[in-house]
Amino acid sequence: MARKKTSGNAEMNERTDIKTPVSEMIRKFKRQKNAVVALFFIIFLVIIALVGEYLVPYGINEYDYSAILQGPSMAHWFGTDEFGRDLFSRIVCGTRISLAVGLSAVTVGAICGTVLGLLGGYYGGFVDSVIMRICDTLFAFPGIILAIAIVAILGSGLGNVVIAVAVFSTPTFARLVRSRTLALKHSVFVQAARNLGASDARILFRHILPGAVPEIIVQFTMSVGSSILTASSLSFLGMGAQPPTPEWGLLLSNGRNYMLTSLHATLFPGLAIFLTVLSFNILGDGLRDALDPKLTD
Questions:
Q1: Sign (positive/negative) of CA torsion 263, 269, 271, 273?
Q2: Of 16, 22, 133, 244, which is most buried by a Cβ count within 10 Å?
Q3: How large is the angle between the packed helices 33-51 and 87-123, nearest 10 degrees?
Q4: Pair 151, 241: CB distance under 8 Å
């Protein structure tokens, strides 16, 4: 009986010691303390984006001309703007706009880039040449310059900002997925699926795409930060969100005329952009280290 119990315990220990890819990724990610803090901060931002408008003490367009450009106080934690509106309330409510623009733009760019990268890497030849030359053309322009040109053509507004940011995000994902597709399309399991009569679409999305998912996740996370920064830059230049929208870049632009007398008008919107972009970049670095199978403890 004792031997049976010992062997049973040994089997249970062996089962517990089995490391799945997900558990191994979580274990590696937990070791990245900065990335864990960044993840919790981003979760906090998402919660604020969902329920923030119900928690703020003032309306985003609640004017108080007796409290114009007041500094931080108990009544107004982040001070007020040039119309006496509460900056804390506007920054909290602007979280939803900035996150929505960044996430939606990168999502569109990731989907388009992934499809183009799969097609170019799998079929090669003329299809690959056309896709890669388009990507090279887009890469020839700095991201912000390309976004400004697109918004100048389409017109200002958050919808056009999403399109502009998505366009310059697409080639990065296309190249990333194409390189992974080239590495996987001649692998044994893809050849086996082809010999069994699987369609090209099934091979691409069922067998090749999962192999590129870790790289896509890392690139997606890091791209969100740069997209929020680009969208804020366009709003700062007057080509994105329009007044009275409480978008962070627009808040920064509105406060720049009062920097010498009322620093808080630019300090707090700038900090919101800085901390959000920094968190997404740190999270991307942590995910890259956690998802890289070559890195061992």
A1: negative
A2: 244
A3: 120
A4: no
Residue in the structure block whose two tokens are 């931002």 = 45
What is the rounded CA–CA span in Å between residue 151 and residue 160? 6
Sequence-distant (6+) residues with CB within 8 A of 101 are 158, 161, 162, 165, 227, 228, 231, 247
As given in the structure block, the two tokens for residue 176 are: 């990333």
138, amino acid identity: L
C-alpha dist (Å) from residue 198 to 128, 193, 202, 239: 22, 6, 6, 47
* Those residues with Cβ within 8 angstroms of residue 119's Cβ, 6 or more apart along the chain or in another chain: 127, 131, 204
Residue 86 to residue 76: CA distance in whole angstroms: 6
Report how far residue 170's alpha carbon sits from residue 119's, in angstroms, rounded to the nearest whole number.
14
**Integer Cα distance of 222 and 229 in angstroms:** 11
Condensed to tens digits (0 to 9), the pLDDT of residues 9-54 reads 545 454 445 567 677 778 878 888 899 999 999 999 999 999 988 8
Overall pTM surpassing 0.70 (yes/no): yes
How many Cβ atoms from other residues are within 10 Å of residue 251's Cβ?
28
3-state helix, strand, coil in the chain (%, to 5): 75, 0, 25
SS3 for 218?
Answer: helix
